[in-house]
Structure formats: C-alpha cells, structure tokens
Design a protein that fits this description.
The chain is an alpha/beta fold. The protein is 19% helix and 40% strand. The protein contains 2 helices and 8 strands, in the order E-H-E-E-E-E-H-E-E-E. The radius of gyration is 14 Å and the shape is globular. The termini are far apart. The mean pLDDT is 96.
C-alpha cells in the first residue's frame, strides 16, 4: 500500500508566511493554486500552507528525522532558531519553531548516541 501525506497549515497572509516557511523548509516544491504553497519533506510527504485569514494559527505539525542536529543547523543558516528545544525521558529530542501566526512546526530526532 502506498501512503502519501499532505499536512496543511492555515496562515493569515500567504506572502509573509511563504517567506518564513522558506527560511524553515527551503524552496517550495510547487504551487497548486494562488492560495497554497507546498514543500516536500520526504517521498510522498508534503507540508503546505494555505491562506485563510479567518482560521489561521493554532496548527501543529511534527516531522521526525534521522539527523535532527543537521536540520537545525540548516534552518539556522537560513536565519531561524527554534523557539523551544526538548529532550524527552526516552532521549527523543524535539525542536519547535513558531510561525508569525502561532502555528508550530516541530522537528524530532532520535536520542543522541553516547
């Protein structure tokens, strides 16, 4: 069975949000219409933003990665730092970023070795 995922986040202003998400995720993968921008985060897995000023904010999305430190460094090179960093009791780590509308995008990673 093939599984594809499209996770959407509502934003107030597409132009402002796109600039922020490009700093977080890099260049967009495609533009399906005038109110959405899509990024591929893995094969057949996408995160997109949609302009919807009345319902913007409050979104949550987490992407789990093999190399969390590399992703945080890559995002940092584009000028964003996590709002929150956590390490859970089992050693799993998470870095959370908040967009201008209050949506949260987290990146999780496995425990550090040693």
């Amino acid at each position: 069975m093939t599984v594809a995922l499209f996770a959407g986040i509502r934003v107030r202003d597409l132009t402002t949000a796109r600039a922020w998400y490009e700093r977080l995720l890099g260049e967009p993968s495609f533009f399906p219409n005038a109110t959405e921008v899509v990024w591929s985060v893995a094969d057949d897995r996408f995160l997109y933003i949609r302009e919807d000023s009345e319902r913007a904010g409050g979104g949550l999305a987490t992407v789990f990665l093999d190399d969390l430190d590399a992703r945080i460094a890559e995002i940092g090179a584009r000028g964003l730092e996590p709002t929150l960093r956590e390490t859970y009791a089992n050693g799993v780590r998470k870095a959370t970023y908040r967009d201008p509308d209050g949506n949260e995008v987290g990146f999780g990673g496995p425990p550090r070795n040693g």
